[in-house]
Prior knowledge:
Chain A is mostly beta strands. Chain A contains no helices and seven strands. By secondary structure, chain B is of the alpha+beta class.
Amino acid sequence: MSKSTIRIKARxxxxxxxxxxxxxxxxxxxxxxxxxxxxxxxxxxxxxxCYHNDTLVLKSHWGxxxxxxxxxxxxxxxxxxxxxIRIRWWDNKGNKETLESxxx
Amino acid sequence: MERxxxxxxxxxxxxxxxxxxxxxxxxxxxxxxxxxxxxxAALDDVLQGDTLQESEQVNLKIPPISQSxxxxxxxxxxxxxxxxxxxLLVENNPNPMVAMYYFSGSAMAxxxxxxxxxxxxxxHVIVKVDGRYYGTSQMVTVKKSGCYESGS
Lengths: 104, 152
Protein backbone atom coordinates (compact mmCIF):
# COMPACT_ATOMS: atom_id res chain seq x y z
CA MET A 1 0.00 0.00 0.00
CA SER A 2 1.39 3.38 -0.96
CA LYS A 3 1.95 6.10 1.60
CA SER A 4 -1.10 8.17 2.54
CA THR A 5 -1.56 11.63 1.06
CA ILE A 6 -2.77 12.77 4.50
CA ARG A 7 -0.66 13.72 7.51
CA ILE A 8 -2.39 14.40 10.85
CA LYS A 9 -0.93 15.90 14.02
CA ALA A 10 -3.45 15.81 16.87
CA ARG A 11 -2.21 17.16 20.20
CA UNK A 12 -3.96 17.36 23.56
CA UNK A 13 -3.82 20.89 24.97
CA UNK A 14 -5.46 22.26 28.13
CA UNK A 15 -9.23 21.96 27.52
CA UNK A 16 -8.98 21.08 23.84
CA UNK A 17 -7.43 19.04 21.06
CA UNK A 18 -5.53 20.91 18.34
CA UNK A 19 -5.47 19.17 14.96
CA UNK A 20 -3.16 20.08 12.08
CA UNK A 21 -3.66 18.36 8.73
CA UNK A 22 -1.52 18.41 5.58
CA UNK A 23 -2.73 16.76 2.36
CA UNK A 24 -0.60 16.15 -0.73
CA UNK A 25 -2.74 17.35 -3.63
CA UNK A 26 -2.00 19.48 -6.75
CA UNK A 27 -5.07 21.75 -6.29
CA UNK A 28 -4.92 22.76 -9.98
CA UNK A 29 -7.04 25.84 -10.65
CA UNK A 30 -7.85 25.11 -14.30
CA UNK A 31 -6.51 28.62 -15.14
CA UNK A 32 -2.91 27.53 -15.71
CA UNK A 33 -1.20 26.63 -19.03
CA UNK A 34 1.61 24.08 -19.34
CA UNK A 35 4.86 24.32 -21.42
CA UNK A 36 2.93 23.29 -24.61
CA UNK A 37 0.44 26.09 -23.98
CA UNK A 38 -2.31 23.59 -23.13
CA UNK A 39 -4.66 24.46 -20.33
CA UNK A 40 -4.08 22.25 -17.28
CA UNK A 41 -7.51 20.96 -16.23
CA UNK A 42 -8.82 21.79 -12.77
CA UNK A 43 -8.00 19.11 -10.20
CA UNK A 44 -8.91 19.99 -6.64
CA UNK A 45 -10.28 18.69 -3.35
CA UNK A 46 -13.98 19.56 -3.00
CA UNK A 47 -14.90 18.12 0.37
CA UNK A 48 -13.10 17.34 3.61
CA UNK A 49 -14.66 15.72 6.66
CA CYS A 50 -13.10 15.65 10.13
CA TYR A 51 -14.27 13.19 12.79
CA HIS A 52 -13.53 13.08 16.53
CA ASN A 53 -14.19 9.55 17.85
CA ASP A 54 -16.59 8.79 14.95
CA THR A 55 -18.52 12.06 15.37
CA LEU A 56 -18.41 14.44 12.42
CA VAL A 57 -17.23 17.77 13.92
CA LEU A 58 -16.10 19.72 10.85
CA LYS A 59 -17.08 19.46 7.23
CA SER A 60 -15.69 21.78 4.60
CA HIS A 61 -16.32 22.61 0.96
CA TRP A 62 -13.25 23.82 -0.94
CA GLY A 63 -12.69 25.51 -4.28
CA UNK A 64 -9.54 25.90 -6.39
CA UNK A 65 -8.28 28.83 -4.27
CA UNK A 66 -7.23 26.55 -1.42
CA UNK A 67 -3.43 26.30 -1.84
CA UNK A 68 -1.54 23.34 -3.30
CA UNK A 69 -0.80 20.65 -0.68
CA UNK A 70 -3.59 22.02 1.55
CA UNK A 71 -3.12 22.83 5.23
CA UNK A 72 -6.07 22.73 7.62
CA UNK A 73 -6.08 23.29 11.36
CA UNK A 74 -9.07 23.04 13.70
CA UNK A 75 -9.80 22.56 17.41
CA UNK A 76 -12.10 20.26 19.35
CA UNK A 77 -13.31 21.14 22.83
CA UNK A 78 -12.32 18.70 25.61
CA UNK A 79 -11.07 15.33 24.40
CA UNK A 80 -8.38 13.02 25.73
CA UNK A 81 -5.03 11.56 24.75
CA UNK A 82 -5.79 8.39 22.75
CA UNK A 83 -8.95 9.78 21.11
CA UNK A 84 -9.26 9.16 17.38
CA ILE A 85 -9.19 11.90 14.72
CA ARG A 86 -10.23 10.80 11.23
CA ILE A 87 -9.83 12.89 8.07
CA ARG A 88 -11.47 12.09 4.75
CA TRP A 89 -11.23 14.01 1.45
CA TRP A 90 -12.81 13.76 -2.02
CA ASP A 91 -11.68 15.58 -5.18
CA ASN A 92 -13.38 16.59 -8.44
CA LYS A 93 -11.95 13.55 -10.26
CA GLY A 94 -13.56 11.09 -7.85
CA ASN A 95 -10.37 10.32 -5.89
CA LYS A 96 -10.78 10.00 -2.14
CA GLU A 97 -8.79 9.01 0.88
CA THR A 98 -9.22 8.51 4.62
CA LEU A 99 -6.67 8.43 7.44
CA GLU A 100 -7.02 8.30 11.18
CA SER A 101 -4.61 9.17 13.95
CA UNK A 102 -4.58 9.04 17.74
CA UNK A 103 -4.42 12.18 19.86
CA UNK A 104 -1.06 12.42 21.69
CA MET B 1 -55.35 14.80 20.97
CA GLU B 2 -54.88 11.66 23.05
CA ARG B 3 -52.10 11.71 25.62
CA UNK B 4 -50.09 8.95 23.95
CA UNK B 5 -50.32 10.63 20.58
CA UNK B 6 -49.24 13.92 22.13
CA UNK B 7 -46.14 12.33 23.69
CA UNK B 8 -45.33 10.63 20.40
CA UNK B 9 -45.46 13.91 18.46
CA UNK B 10 -43.24 15.55 21.11
CA UNK B 11 -40.66 12.80 20.73
CA UNK B 12 -40.75 13.14 16.94
CA UNK B 13 -40.26 16.93 17.22
CA UNK B 14 -37.27 16.39 19.55
CA UNK B 15 -35.75 13.93 17.08
CA UNK B 16 -36.32 16.46 14.33
CA UNK B 17 -34.28 19.04 16.23
CA UNK B 18 -31.48 16.56 16.82
CA UNK B 19 -31.41 15.69 13.13
CA UNK B 20 -31.31 19.32 11.97
CA UNK B 21 -27.61 20.05 12.46
CA UNK B 22 -26.19 16.89 10.85
CA UNK B 23 -28.37 17.67 7.79
CA UNK B 24 -26.52 20.93 7.18
CA UNK B 25 -23.28 18.97 7.53
CA UNK B 26 -24.38 16.65 4.75
CA UNK B 27 -25.10 19.45 2.24
CA UNK B 28 -23.71 18.80 -1.24
CA UNK B 29 -20.78 20.77 -2.72
CA UNK B 30 -22.38 24.06 -3.89
CA UNK B 31 -21.11 24.27 -7.50
CA UNK B 32 -22.97 27.50 -8.38
CA UNK B 33 -21.49 29.25 -5.32
CA UNK B 34 -17.92 28.34 -6.31
CA UNK B 35 -18.59 29.25 -9.99
CA UNK B 36 -19.49 32.92 -9.34
CA UNK B 37 -17.09 35.28 -11.13
CA UNK B 38 -17.92 38.45 -9.21
CA UNK B 39 -17.75 39.15 -5.49
CA UNK B 40 -21.23 40.68 -5.11
CA ALA B 41 -22.91 37.66 -6.74
CA ALA B 42 -20.94 35.26 -4.55
CA LEU B 43 -21.75 37.31 -1.43
CA ASP B 44 -25.48 37.40 -2.29
CA ASP B 45 -25.40 33.62 -2.70
CA VAL B 46 -23.76 33.14 0.71
CA LEU B 47 -26.21 35.49 2.46
CA GLN B 48 -29.34 34.09 0.77
CA GLY B 49 -31.20 37.40 1.05
CA ASP B 50 -30.04 38.22 4.59
CA THR B 51 -27.78 41.12 5.52
CA LEU B 52 -24.15 40.99 6.62
CA GLN B 53 -23.30 42.70 9.89
CA GLU B 54 -19.73 43.89 10.54
CA SER B 55 -18.64 42.41 13.85
CA GLU B 56 -15.64 42.97 16.11
CA GLN B 57 -16.30 39.48 17.47
CA VAL B 58 -14.97 38.01 14.21
CA ASN B 59 -11.20 38.01 13.77
CA LEU B 60 -9.29 37.32 10.56
CA LYS B 61 -5.54 36.86 10.93
CA ILE B 62 -3.80 37.26 7.57
CA PRO B 63 -0.58 39.07 6.56
CA PRO B 64 -1.33 42.59 5.19
CA ILE B 65 1.46 42.20 2.59
CA SER B 66 2.38 38.93 0.88
CA GLN B 67 5.32 38.48 -1.53
CA SER B 68 3.41 35.73 -3.33
CA UNK B 69 -0.26 34.86 -3.69
CA UNK B 70 0.52 31.15 -4.02
CA UNK B 71 0.01 30.32 -0.35
CA UNK B 72 -1.25 33.01 2.03
CA UNK B 73 -1.90 31.80 5.60
CA UNK B 74 -5.35 32.76 6.94
CA UNK B 75 -6.83 32.00 10.36
CA UNK B 76 -10.31 32.80 11.64
CA UNK B 77 -11.36 33.00 15.28
CA UNK B 78 -14.57 34.34 16.79
CA UNK B 79 -16.00 34.88 20.26
CA UNK B 80 -19.48 34.28 18.83
CA UNK B 81 -21.08 31.09 20.14
CA UNK B 82 -23.07 28.34 18.38
CA UNK B 83 -21.26 28.99 15.10
CA UNK B 84 -22.77 27.06 12.19
CA UNK B 85 -20.28 27.97 9.48
CA UNK B 86 -17.32 30.10 8.47
CA UNK B 87 -16.90 31.23 4.84
CA LEU B 88 -13.76 32.68 3.24
CA LEU B 89 -13.86 34.85 0.09
CA VAL B 90 -11.16 36.70 -1.87
CA GLU B 91 -12.89 39.62 -3.59
CA ASN B 92 -10.52 39.94 -6.59
CA ASN B 93 -9.99 36.24 -7.35
CA PRO B 94 -11.42 34.90 -10.68
CA ASN B 95 -13.84 32.91 -8.47
CA PRO B 96 -14.14 34.80 -5.15
CA MET B 97 -15.45 31.82 -3.15
CA VAL B 98 -12.56 30.04 -1.40
CA ALA B 99 -13.96 27.65 1.20
CA MET B 100 -16.84 27.03 3.59
CA TYR B 101 -16.44 25.26 6.95
CA TYR B 102 -19.43 23.78 8.82
CA PHE B 103 -19.06 23.13 12.55
CA SER B 104 -20.85 20.57 14.68
CA GLY B 105 -20.66 18.88 18.07
CA SER B 106 -17.50 19.70 20.01
CA ALA B 107 -15.72 21.57 17.19
CA MET B 108 -14.54 25.04 18.26
CA ALA B 109 -15.21 28.09 16.07
CA UNK B 110 -11.70 28.26 14.63
CA UNK B 111 -10.12 27.39 11.32
CA UNK B 112 -6.70 27.93 9.80
CA UNK B 113 -5.71 27.35 6.16
CA UNK B 114 -3.60 28.65 3.27
CA UNK B 115 -5.20 30.32 0.27
CA UNK B 116 -4.34 31.47 -3.26
CA UNK B 117 -4.69 35.12 -4.21
CA UNK B 118 -4.65 36.29 -7.84
CA UNK B 119 -3.78 39.88 -6.91
CA UNK B 120 -4.14 42.41 -4.10
CA UNK B 121 -7.64 42.13 -2.67
CA UNK B 122 -9.86 42.46 0.35
CA UNK B 123 -10.25 39.06 2.03
CA HIS B 124 -13.66 38.52 3.64
CA VAL B 125 -14.79 36.14 6.35
CA ILE B 126 -18.46 35.48 7.08
CA VAL B 127 -19.59 33.69 10.23
CA LYS B 128 -23.11 32.23 10.40
CA VAL B 129 -24.77 32.05 13.81
CA ASP B 130 -28.43 31.09 14.23
CA GLY B 131 -29.24 32.06 10.63
CA ARG B 132 -27.55 35.49 10.90
CA TYR B 133 -24.31 36.59 9.24
CA TYR B 134 -21.41 38.44 10.88
CA GLY B 135 -18.25 39.40 9.08
CA THR B 136 -14.95 41.16 8.89
CA SER B 137 -12.50 41.97 6.07
CA GLN B 138 -8.86 42.75 5.61
CA MET B 139 -6.95 44.17 2.66
CA VAL B 140 -4.02 42.02 1.52
CA THR B 141 -1.39 43.40 -0.87
CA VAL B 142 0.00 40.65 -3.11
CA LYS B 143 3.29 41.21 -4.99
CA LYS B 144 3.10 38.12 -7.27
CA SER B 145 -0.07 36.33 -8.47
CA GLY B 146 -0.97 32.93 -7.08
CA CYS B 147 -3.48 31.68 -9.65
CA TYR B 148 -1.66 31.17 -12.93
CA GLU B 149 1.87 30.25 -11.83
CA SER B 150 3.34 26.78 -12.11
CA GLY B 151 3.19 25.00 -8.79
CA SER B 152 0.32 27.09 -7.54
